[in-house]
Structure formats: C-alpha cells, structure tokens
C-alpha cells in the first residue's frame, strides 16, 4: 500500500500535461500548396515522416512520465508494510516456551525469534508499540503501547526462554488488552504444535488482528527429536510389600523409526531397556518392583541426547510409599459409637486392606496424617475439620463427604469450590410426600458400575429428608446420582491432586433408607476404586505449572518464592515444597513435539523470519522514482536525437 509524506505536492500533477501543451503551442503552422514536381519526393519521404510522428509522440509521453515520477518523489511516496496504517498500534508477542530452545540452522529458534522481534519493533515507523513475552506468566513491557520502542526492546533483551509451555493463550490475551481501540498482534514463534494452544483467532476483540512470524525449521521440515513425555506408577497409592509398576513413555516426533536405550531407575534399582519408537508415535517401557520400606524414593527415566531439544531427554519424579493403607472415618454425632451407621463402610474398607482410623472433627488434622482416604458424617465441629481437609485434598487425599447434619453441610474448606452447593433441609414427610426415589444414575462411574443390570437395588433407596441443591454443580464436577425431582444426590470433582465426593444422602434412618439398603455395602466396597487412582498419571509436574505451596527449593540450592501461595518450578529437575515433600519437574509433553503446525487450520498465514519486515517496514520510493525519471529522460534524449537527424 502506497502513502504520501506530503500529499499536497500531488497537486502539481497538472504539470504532466506541460509537454503536450508546449508541443501544441509551438507546433509549426503550414499552408498546403500544390507543386507537381515535388510529388515524387513526397512518395520517397512518406514512410520516414510517419516514424517521426510516432517518435515525437513517444518523446512527449516519456517527458510526461518523467515529470510524474518527479512529482511523486517530491510528495514522498512510501510503500507501507502488509499490515499498513502507520497510526495502528502494534504488540509483538515473543514465544518463550521450551520448544524455542530447539536448534534451527546453527542457532536456537529463540535467538532467531528475539532478533526478528527486535527488527519488527525498530521498523515500526510511527506506530505505538509494546512487547509481550509468552513465558509461564506473560511479561509485558508496559501497561500501554508507547511511541518509543525502548521499553519493548529492553524487555526482549532481559528475558530468556522458559522450560514451560509459555501459556500462549494468556500471552495473546495480555497483548489484546494493550489494544483497546484495535491494532495488530504479531506472534514471533517457532510454530511448533503447542505454540497456539488455547488460542482462538476468531475470539479476538473487534479491530485486533493476529499475524504469525515463523522462526522455526519451516514447513515440510520434521526436526529429529526424541523425548521422555510421561512417567507413571501403578497402583496410584504405593504400599510397602505390594508390587509397584513404573512406566515411562518415549515419543518420537521425527520422520524415522528409532530404537533407543531407555534407562529406568527407581531408587538404587536401575535397568536399561531398548524401546522401538515409530515415527510420529510413542512407546512405553515398564519395570516392576516391590518397595521394602516406607518413604519417598526417586524415579528417573532418561534416553541419550544429541537431538533438537536436549531438555526433554530426561524425566524425574518421586513416589511416596506408605507403610499401610489408612482410611479415616470421622464423625461427632455418636461419640459413644463412632462407627454407628458407617459400620458397612468400615467393614468394606477393612476388607479392602485399609487400616481404619476413627476420629472426630477436632482431631481430624492429626488423624489424616498418612491417610489415603477420609469419610466424614455427622460433624459438629466443621470449622476445624474443614481447615484440615483443604490441604489434605490439595496434597492428593480422597474425601467422602456425607451430608448427615448441619455441621456436614457447613464443612467447606476455604477457597475450594464444592462439587455441589447444599442449602436448607427439606422434610418430605411434612409435605405429605413421604419419600422420594433416585431419578438419575451414572452407571459408567466406578462407584456405580456394580449396579449395571442390578438397578432394582438402587430403586430400594428412599430419601425422607434431603438437602436442597438450588445451584448447578461445579463446572468440573460429575453428577453421579440425582433424586427424582432433580435435586443432586451425589457429585464428585478433582481438587488439586485429590478428589472430593459429596453424598447428599444421610445415613441416618430418619434421612434415608441407604444404611439399611443392600446397595450401601456394595457402594462402600467400590469406594476405594472410585476415589483412589488406579495409577499415578504423572510423577513429574510440568515446568511452569502452579503448585500450592509457599516456596520451592531446588536440589542445587535455588529457591522459588510463591505468589498467592502458588509456586512454579522454573526448570526440569528435583524440587521440594515448603513442607519438604519432593517433586519432579519436566518439560511439558506438548513442547517436545517440534513438528511445525499448519496455521491454515486456524485460518492464519505465517511469514518466514527473513520476510517478516514486509509486515511493518515502510520503504521510501523516491530513490526509485528519481532513477525511473532519469531513465525516461535518457530515452527521451535518444529519441529526440533521432528526430533531429
């Protein structure tokens, strides 16, 4: 797109007609006279005269074009970048995720991207600019765009790529917030698979456009990269003397099948297993061991390096081995008989190999030490119980929350959304209804799968007094049971590393027939399968992921402070939280997939780094216009000399 520095000069364009006017005013006026002897000469010179007239017209045209080029040069003709609009603000978003550490043509993608982002900012002309670095928490050069690129360039020079996924959605959101009146966002990235994770270009605010600059290996190129992308343990709760299976998964984003020696080490036990990994796929290797002592032991899975991204060739984690399976059953209503109506639950947990530890609400914090599962009902001291259950859930505990009393309804850990909100109690007998049946059952859930084909057992459960649930369940909650009128009867949701199952069915005879129904012992037997994980899905946390703790300390002495009681491990390796519990941190699995993303899937196009300046750079055209004018005048002189001859 062409724009003008001094558009008023274009008014001199009327001078283009000057050569034609001079020619018309100075043309020779002749009078035709008949002279017969000259007829033979006219026939000889007729063809030459026609060529002379064409040359004269060509000379006039060349002079007019030369004048036009001179006027355009004087008006300051400028070719604007593809984005155009010198008044549109611009935000450059620099991808600083782990994949930017990959090697590309002798340099890292980060080095190429940072240099390209700097050139874009310096070439922005009269635009107001800002920069956002897409790290685990986005970094901004300021709270608004500014005419000077200095703050943005300073931010780029001070930052390095992180080991996390860079949270591209949050970075694009932060950039859009800097453009309340519209503008251009340019994302400089390696275009790896995770670079636009969570980004929806169609959801950008009105007037905001998104452009991509590819600093990666380029379309059609598949980097050679192998990575350990997962490390898990089965069962999810390790017990002394019980077999434990450790599984590592290796991914291959290259174009050829690879056989790689995978070294798996658990404590002092180390083994090397050859793993065949197909191109673009993954494969697993396992070892089985039996822990002989309680406590934490480290697990490491590693493959030889020397590929595009070295940081993902090793994954470390920690497994907690319990001396025994402990379940806490807490209640205050029947202190003389703490088991009371929960006797079937205690019997089922004991049969499943749990050591059941009775408690009350006041002593719950101490009772939960080392417990894998907790069940509460009939609480009278909900405040102290809730204070203990919050950290317990975050650390991976499982809680069966039976709403049997007002204290149970009030037992809500601070800052944690319950699976469902229960309010006042409704006595169906007072309404003349007597009881209510279950109306919805989720048979695919582990707690209820045993009733598939045995629905009559659930139909025997009657509710006499239930808690109302006027609000919808939490967004990530699963509704397992509901009464016939739609009131929720059971729902569960994940909390931190643990699970919270809320049962809106009192176990007292005045509340429901659950305790006396045949279905209750079957539910109790399924409770460990429903709440305790079959496997520990990932022994290592993602770098940059939030961990609820006040601080993290690394094995090399580094310390990471928490923001709002959430700390983020900045690099792969072994860390400890504020309570001394070990944890492993690793490169997120999606960052290991370096295969280029096709931006057309999202309706976008990408410029390569070498042509990125065409997006914003303004090219002055006056030197070219002057050169063209000189060339035109040179051609005019040649034609004019021919005419004189």
Work out the oligomeric state of the chains in this entry.
single chain
Q: Which sheet architecture does the biggest sheet show?
A: 9 strands, mixed
The number of helical runs is 12
Task: Write down the overall geometry.
Answer: elongated
- Order of strands across the main sheet: 19-18-20-21-28-27-26-23-24
Q: From the alpha carbons, calculate the radius of gyration and give it in angstroms.
A: 38 Å
Calculate the terminal CA-CA distance, rounded to whole Å.
44 Å
What level of helicity do the residues show? 10-25%
What is the structural class? alpha/beta
Detail the poorly predicted runs. 335-339
Mean pLDDT: 85
Tally of strands: 37
Strand content: 25-35%
């Amino acid at each position: 797109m062409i724009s003008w520095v001094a558009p008023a000069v274009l008014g001199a364009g009327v001078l283009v007609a000057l050569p034609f006017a001079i020619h018309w005013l100075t043309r020779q006026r002749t009078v035709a006279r008949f002279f017969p002897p000259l007829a033979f000469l006219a026939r000889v010179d007729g063809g030459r005269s026609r060529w002379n007239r064409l040359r004269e017209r060509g000379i006039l045209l060349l002079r007019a074009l030369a004048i036009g080029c001179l006027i355009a040069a004087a008006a300051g003709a400028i070719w604007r970048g593809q984005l155009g609009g010198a008044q549109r603000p611009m935000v450059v978003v620099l991808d600083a995720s782990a994949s930017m550490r990959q090697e590309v043509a002798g340099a890292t993608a980060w080095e190429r991207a940072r240099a390209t982002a700097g050139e874009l900012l310096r070439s922005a002309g009269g635009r107001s600019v800002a920069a956002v670095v897409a790290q685990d928490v986005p970094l901004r050069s300021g709270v608004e765009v500014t005419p000077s690129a200095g703050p943005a360039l300073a931010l780029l020079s001070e930052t390095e790529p992180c080991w996390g996924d860079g949270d591209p959605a949050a970075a694009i959101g932060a950039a859009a917030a800097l453009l309340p009146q519209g503008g251009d966002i340019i994302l400089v990235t390696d275009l790896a698979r995770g670079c636009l994770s969570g980004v929806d270009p169609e959801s950008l605010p009105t007037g905001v456009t998104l452009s991509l600059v590819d600093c990666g290996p380029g379309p059609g190129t598949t980097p050679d990269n192998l990575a350990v992308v997962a490390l898990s343990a089965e069962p999810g709760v390790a017990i002394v003397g019980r077999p434990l299976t450790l599984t590592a998964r290796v991914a291959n984003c290259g174009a050829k099948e690879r056989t790689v020696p995978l070294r798996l080490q658990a404590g002092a036990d180390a083994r090397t297993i050859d793993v065949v990994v197909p191109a673009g796929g993954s494969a697993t290797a396992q070892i089985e061991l039996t822990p002989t002592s309680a406590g934490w032991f480290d697990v490491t899975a590693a493959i030889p390096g020397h590929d595009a991204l070295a940081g993902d060739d090793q994954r470390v984690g920690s497994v907690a081995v319990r001396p025994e399976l402990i379940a806490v059953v807490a209640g205050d209503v029947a202190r003389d008989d703490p088991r009371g109506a929960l006797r079937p639950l205690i019997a089922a947990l004991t049969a499943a190999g749990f050591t059941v530890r009775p408690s009350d609400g006041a002593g719950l914090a101490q009772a939960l030490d080392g417990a894998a599962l907790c069940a509460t009902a009939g609480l009278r001291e909900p405040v102290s119980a809730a204070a203990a259950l919050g950290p317990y859930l975050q650390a991976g505990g499982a809680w069966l929350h039976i709403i049997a009393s007002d204290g149970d309804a009030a037992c809500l850990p601070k800052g944690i959304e319950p699976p469902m909100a229960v309010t006042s109690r409704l006595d169906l007998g007072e309404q003349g209804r007597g009881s209510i049946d279950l109306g919805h059952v989720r048979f695919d859930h582990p707690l209820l799968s045993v009733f598939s084909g045995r629905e009559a057992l659930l139909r025997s459960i009657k509710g006499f007094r239930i808690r109302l649930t006027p609000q919808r369940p939490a967004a990530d909650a699963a509704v397992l049971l509901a009464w016939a009128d739609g009131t929720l009867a059971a729902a569960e949701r994940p909390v931190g590393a643990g699970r919270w199952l809320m049962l809106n069915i009192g176990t007292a005879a005045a509340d429901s027939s659950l305790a006396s129904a045949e279905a209750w012992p079957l539910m109790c037997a399924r409770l460990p399968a429903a709440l305790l994980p079959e496997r520990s899905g990932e022994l290592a946390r993602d770098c940059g992921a939030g961990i609820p703790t006040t601080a993290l300390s690394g094995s090399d002495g580094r310390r990471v402070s928490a923001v709002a009681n959430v700390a983020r491990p900045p690099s792969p390796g072994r860390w400890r939280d504020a309570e001394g519990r070990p944890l492993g941190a690793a490169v997120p699995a999606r960052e290991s997939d370096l295969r280029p993303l096709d931006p057309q899937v999202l309706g976008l196009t990408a410029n390569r780094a070498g042509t990125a300046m065409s997006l914003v750079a303004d090219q002055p055209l006056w030197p070219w216009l002057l050169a063209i004018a000189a060339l035109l005048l040179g051609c005019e002189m040649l034609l004019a000399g021919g005419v004189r001859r």
